[in-house]
Write the structure tokens for this entry.
Amino acid sequence: MKSANRELVDRLAAEYVLGTLRHRARRRFERWLLSPQVGALVKAWEDRLAGLEPRLTPVTPPAAVWRGIEDKLGLRKLQRRPAMRWLSIAASIIFFVAVGVFITRPPEQPQLTQKSFLQADPQTIYWRVEILGDNQELSLHVHVVHDLPPGKSHELWALPEGGGAPVSLGLMPHTGDHHRVLNAAQRAALGVSKQIAVSLEPEGGSPTGAPTGPVLLVAPLTRA
Amino acid sequence: MNRTDTLPPDIELAQLLQRCAASDTAAFRALYDKTSPILFARLLRMLRRRSVAEEVLQDVFVRIWQRAAQYEMGRGRALAWMVTIARYCAIDLMRRERMTLVSDDAIAEIADESAAESGGIEKPNNFDSCIEQLNDNTRKCLTMAFVEGRSHDEIAQLTTHPLGSVKSWIRRGLLALKECLSSERQTT
């Protein structure tokens, strides 16, 4: 980065962290977070301005907030209490006995709707990415193994149109086929994205939630 | 009572985050119980409306769960990491909704315990002496922006200073703070 540019970007990073960079300027700046240099400037300002954090009296939020979080993340299914689980199993048995088991076909799988080839050149496809249903699920297929320095991970991003911040779609596998169900934020981001990208991140993925390492591959999403 | 004694230790939060990264929902609940009152108070301070702060708090914990794997254990500062997520979620909402000055129905219950000390979050070395060197207007503008989430326009309105002055105090204040913190670091 040239020093004049660096000064400007540092000033924007400061106002981004302070919160006074707003509206379109903030969105545009979030796209720059793809660059590791910009990410480092932001991190430095986060550390500096942490000194302004006020000491507040904690306020307990109402119980409905936790229930909302469980609903958004689908956690209640994962940790239902045993008594509730037995009740629900009993209810299911009664239901099936009462109506008879009419279900003869398996639940519908979401159909392939979009795909993308992450490639360096026409001959070298590293990953095939498939989007299933209404951005519900993601299938990742490794074609050619991409070089990965030790202590690093490859992370996949949806790039929303119009300058929205990239949204992580998780880490990239290096062998075989992988399938994952997308969360609401990822589905929303894919709904407004025409491109995806892979960046190089610290092991385990970006520490900031935005890309911090170099962008290695960018590819369009096309209708299947 | 010393408030820092009642704050959860950062190492404990870091361990809970690590367990969240492994999809441990009990750890997530424990993390929520320990930190949601702190983050909720912080959001109320910025958003000033209970119903909005409750909604944003949900988004904050959704993000914390999804990004737990991205938290670097070695970095420590788990609470600072979570508070930053909360601040950015609140700013995102204000940006989306173009929220401006709203009624302060919640502000009374979250008065600062002490404006001089941070909420259990590690300050840079010599932060206090550097912030003291700024003039009163600059310090006030920086605090209104960072702590209350106010925009340039809102700060100008509330302080009845011209918008241009507010912008330039903030710009110069940030620069002065950076220079002071880096020179203090070199001399210590």
About this structure: DSSP finds six helices and ten strands in chain A.
